[in-house]
Specification:
- This protein is mostly helical.
- It has a domain of about 40 residues.
- The chain contains 4 helices and no strands.
- The longest helix has 29 residues.
């Protein structure tokens, strides 16, 4: 599952700093990006363990289920704060926009 990296900066270049909907878009983009990074970390951890983790992945169906589980876990972790990267990214973008305006 190769998910493209969300273009956080280009998507936020036309956003207003005063609009709460735009602030939510920035936060969601940053959370999506963090989830992508967490999926890559989980995928690397699984591939480092040649036996697979979660007891699956030996066949195509098992592999698909493990990837789906990793994707869901990464999304939930990122939505709940994850590594804190989404907050740092969105705060940084907000500060950058404030300095530019």
């Amino acid at each position: 599952m190769n998910t493209p990296i969300p273009p956080v900066i280009s998507r936020t270049s036309q956003l207003s700093r005063d609009d709460p909907a735009d602030a939510r878009k920035i936060r969601q983009s940053a959370t999506d990006f963090e989830a992508l990074l967490m999926r890559q970390i989980l995928k690397s951890a699984r591939s480092a363990d040649s036996g697979g983790w979660l007891g699956g992945g030996e066949d195509q169906a098992g592999q698909s289920m493990v990837e789906l589980g990793e994707e869901y876990l990464a999304q939930v972790l990122a939505a709940e704060g994850g590594l804190g990267m989404a907050r740092l990214i969105s705060d940084g973008l907000r500060d950058r926009r404030l300095a530019r305006d």
